[in-house]
Predict the 3D structure of the following.
Amino acid sequence: MLLERKKITDYFQNLQKNICKSLEDEDQKSKFSSETWQREEGGGGITNVFQDGNIWEKGCVNFSAVSGKMPEILAKRDTFGEGNFFATGVSIVLHTQNPFVPIIHMNVRYFEMNQQKAWFGGGIDLTPHYIQENDAVFFHQQLKNTCDKFSPTYYPEFKKWADDYFYIKHRNETRGVGGIFFDRLEENKDFSWENRFQFVQEIGNTFIPSYLPIVQKNKNKKYSQENKNWQLYRRGRYVEFNLVYDAGTKFGLETSGRIESILLSLPKQAEWIYDLKPEKNSPEFNTLALLKKDINWV
Amino acid sequence: MLLERKKITDYFQNLQKNICKSLEDEDQKSKFSSETWQREEGGGGITNVFQDGNIWEKGCVNFSAVSGKMPEILAKRDTFGEGNFFATGVSIVLHTQNPFVPIIHMNVRYFEMNQQKAWFGGGIDLTPHYIQENDAVFFHQQLKNTCDKFSPTYYPEFKKWADDYFYIKHRNETRGVGGIFFDRLEENKDFSWENRFQFVQEIGNTFIPSYLPIVQKNKNKKYSQENKNWQLYRRGRYVEFNLVYDAGTKFGLETSGRIESILLSLPKQAEWIYDLKPEKNSPEFNTLALLKKDINWV
């Protein structure tokens, strides 16, 4: 028996509310602007946009719960099949003012096909413009702690999945220091629906305690124009990843979703500089050296 | 009988040289930096990068002539098939300092499979940040004049092809005011190889006379910070097109081409602003209204 949809959407909607509150309390300057939208084919969402704060320059914490006939372009791919779908979740991307405060992303979601097949998915990953190893260790440790409550295989498996997913193939670089990624978590003999849902809730609840301490530690660091330029340059990579590889973005663009909500993941400003090669042993150089798969942070 | 490769590459290489010379003469400040590269699997190219000029902020005029075994990922698509390929051409993208000077793009190319099948292709399109109708008319008239020398069907056919190709589907916007796009021009009963080659040469030679007058007309126009912001915002669309749709870029990313050369098409700086809606009847608003297919400029 599938879980009650209302229980899941209620959790996601509350998660959106709680995360927005925590971020506003931290930022002290800007507030989320909220927009409720309806989808003609069924369902809708709440787009919460954050702009021009002390800490965050641009970002979003979006909730949606949509349903309807599976778009043809996706039905043809055997991963989904034909029929009626229901999808709900929370999506977050936050771009920062200070180059020493990392970009954060999280998505937690629930998907149902024809009221029969269903699964949970999600991911959370940290993209520092300058990698500070202790921050990466802290971040991964929080995620591991949550994963370990549910299964010892979760963290290693989902961490590897994140390394593979948040990967910019044409650059041979990871997007940042990774995190976890998981998909198609269904009910089976080892895990009940309740247990799967509990896991996704705890991941959602891990967002603030795994990210805010890193923000607080770095938000008052002084930075130079050179640091700012590097941030703009690294944001260019974020744009490349999201437009070329990100499955959620592609899904949105192909199904003509709400484009402005989908592309809220893009930074306010980004740069591309031809053949930039940071000086050996500079902080920028050292960051590039850590944008690799299979680093064991914990 | 196919044309001699050397004849074609010589033309493309000279075209690169001539165009770079004309642009430098016009800019008066910056010069192209030139880098010759070799490809392990065969061939190479000359990447000519332009940065921080009076007129152009960032751009490239690239020549390449590469050969080797068709990459598997492309061979599987029936458009190419398996075997040995040879490809040569010139690719240009120029981003401007002044928001009233349009971005320009041109690509002219020749492709050969297994020394049997071959074709010419190319395209040239203008992307104003602010559309000025008389500039669009002038630009299209130049292209039409060149097309008309070869066939009365060329311009209408290739103009429509450009409308369809340089189209940002998820925005329901054309990239700019279009131009022409053509591909798979082979020898047939109506057109000899010599004639096809002649056409591509004349298109290449049309680049400077169809673009520079527009540059000269607009380069000294005064602009405000608001105009500059709009330029950055419109460049965001250029990034979206190139990373999501552009066939040449996709080809490059998938075949792990020379990434820095391929992504030279991206502007130095771009912006994304959530749900920007220009004021009715503003120049920005009027530009958006003209980013449509099927406008008959001439």
In short: Chain A touches chain B through 30 residues (CB under 8 Å).
